[in-house]
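Records of this kind hold a single protein each, on a pair of labelled lines. Below, a sample record shows both lines together.
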Amino acid sequence: MKCKQATQMLSEKLDRPLSTKEKINLAMHTAICSPCRQFGQQMETLRALSQAYTKTKESRRKIIFIFCVIKPRSLTSKTM
């Protein structure tokens, strides 16, 4: 499986159940490809944040807190 297929499947995984074959292929790919594994984690985080945002004002406050406390890896790994 190529990264383009893996990222597409990681996105589809949020919208529909994957077949057993798809799950196995995706698991094998993400086990050896850290960029795709990170993409999957980011997709799941974005999904959770967007769902929480639509629930309540309290959830919106939590989202703001998360964005203030957790910084993207790319910003924290730069040297100054």
